Amino acid sequence: MNIPDHRFAVHKVVSIILTETTVNQPLPGQFACKQKARYLTVILTILLIRRTVAVERWTFKFNHSTRRPPTINMAGIGRLSTKGSVLLLCDMQEKFRPNIFQFTNIVSNAARLLQAARVLGIPPIVTEQYPKGLGPTVPELGAGDLTAHAKTKFTMMIEPVEKELKALGDPKIAILCGIETQACIACTTFDLLEKGMEVHIVADAVSSRSQTDRLFALSRLRQSGAFLTTTEAVLLQLVQDAQHPNFREIQKLLVQPSPDTALLAFFSSL
């Protein structure tokens, strides 16, 4: 950045004013004030230009002396960690089985996440939406030994769950899976984000009755600040190293690729 040199401008303005004053000499008497006005204009113009130059030079020096390299908010890049994480398993119940898109594969991926959470010491929390009418959690999830919190609200953030989170020391990272994406998953995500938690939605472990609702909900939640990820990505990011003491156990969960849940349509629309 070059600081403009206003010396030429000063000389030009003064020259114009003085030339007009010389050529059109004011007559004595009523026109004498005109000459004084011209001289005052010259003086004020010079002072104004000098002040402008001084301000621009100070601003230039200040901006260059205080410039800092860009920083990255490390808390917001979405790095997963076993410490401070919780696995939320939302409403994977028997009565949803025939109606949810890719239900079998969604539950299969969620079951892998639960197995990994047990291995890595990540606490899981399970909810059920109106179990009296919609039935219990499906057995293939492998959550039979866990207390499922019954709810009627769409969000998982009901009082018993809030208490459990507090007892766990208020985890900062939520790994979220289950159904339905546009309802309970969405409401839970909004509540968690408002609490200041980092939310990782496992895209191949969430679904809805329609693929349209599922994909639009994922797009909406991504805009709101949730991270979209996959089952395998979560497992590998949690261990991060082939020398991790639990890597062999996690590796067994990855021998077979995660079943396809038709997510390519989502990414082709981005």
UniProtKB/TrEMBL annotation:
Please provide an example of a Pfam family that matches this protein in its UniProt record.
Isochorismatase
Q: Where is the Isochorismatase-like domain?
A: 85-232
InterPro entries named in the record: Isochorismatase-like_dom (IPR000868), Isochorismatase-like_sf (IPR036380), Isochorismatase_domain (IPR050993)
Xref: SUPFAM superfamilies: Isochorismatase-like hydrolases
Question: Can you tell me which family this protein belongs to?
Answer: Belongs to the isochorismatase family.
Q: Which PANTHER family match?
A: HYDROLASE (PTHR14119), ISOCHORISMATASE DOMAIN-CONTAINING PROTEIN 2 (PTHR14119:SF3)
Protein name, entry field: Isochorismatase domain containing 2
Q: Which organism is it from?
A: Oncorhynchus tshawytscha
Q: What is the lineage of its organism?
A: Eukaryota, Metazoa, Chordata, Craniata, Vertebrata
Question: What is the gene called?
Answer: LOC112247685
